[in-house]
Amino acid sequence: MKAVVLTETGFEIGEAPKPTPTEDQVLVRAHAYALNRADLGVLSGGQHGSVGGPGTIPGMEWAGEVVEVGARVRGIKPGDRVMCSGTRGYAEYVVTDWGRVMPIPSASMTYEQATTLPISIITMHNALITAGEMRAGETVLIQGASSGVGLMAMQIAKVMGAKTVIGTSSNPGRLAQLNKYGADFAIDNSDPNWPALAAQANGGKGVDLIIDQLSGKFGTPNLEACAVLGRIVNVGRLAGRFAEFDFDLHAAKRIKYTGVTFRTRSIDEVREIASRAMGDLWPHIESGKLALPIDSTYSFDKIADAFAKMRGNQHFGKIVVSMN
């Protein structure tokens, strides 16, 4: 089968063996793929969980048609149109655990639209609701809101009852679009005064919950923006893994700071996360209320151009690759 295969110097589109599902897995013929920033690290020689190194197939998100299911899989059958997350996704045929397979909600939803959803839905429902303990009526700030998962986070916060949603970006063009995806306030986080502006959005008390995709230099300013007894969930480190951190401010405000990742979770934990997300959000997925913009679409043979687009960091929403 055709696949993206990592090499010593990068990657190539070559041939790889067609996978066989285990008793808990689903085999999908993929029609579309969504790029994620973690892919760039793997393509540059890094490791993301179990994925990395020459011979590996990267890719975390795809949509397609079920070809075969394992003996213990229930509720999924050959011919179903599905959207999936997992590993080794940039290939004609992909396997993943049944717990990471979601039905495509309507015949009118294309594979390209569907592939944008799985990771953002399960990641941000977990960050907001489970790890972040978000309650209806709270003020929520999404740090780095113009990414695909950031745009989904704002929408999930809204449908789950947040009173005020704040999105941040340093790009004026992206800031101007955040209100279309749930932001009541769009704040330029390159402005040194942004923590005060965020606090003012909640009557000066500060933000109840921050979902941080940036880290780095934003560590202490996040504390400044937070309310007493606020919560911060660390999802990503796009601005760096290391920086100064005001531990005294953290203690004074009694802020709960939680880190999350899927890399160290068991398959049972991932199944539970996906199940909870679907339980809360399925009506909004089905109605199309939770949706992401597609910035650009590339053919599979032009996937190198898609990666270059992501490295340029000028996109808004998801970059998609189509096998069709």
TrEMBL record:
GO molecular function: NADPH binding; oxidoreductase activity, acting on NAD(P)H
InterPro entries: ADH-like_C, ADH-like_N, ER, GroES-like_sf, NAD(P)-bd_dom_sf
Presence of keyword Oxidoreductase: yes
Pfam families assigned to the protein according to its UniProt record, in alphabetical order: ADH_N, ADH_zinc_N
The UniProt record lists the keyword Endoplasmic reticulum: no
SMART domains recorded: PKS_ER
Domain Enoyl reductase (ER): 8-321
Gene3D superfamilies: Medium-chain alcohol dehydrogenases, catalytic domain, NAD(P)-binding Rossmann-like Domain
Keywords linked to the UniProt accession: NADP, Oxidoreductase
Name of the protein: Zinc-binding dehydrogenase
Annotated source species: Zwartia hollandica
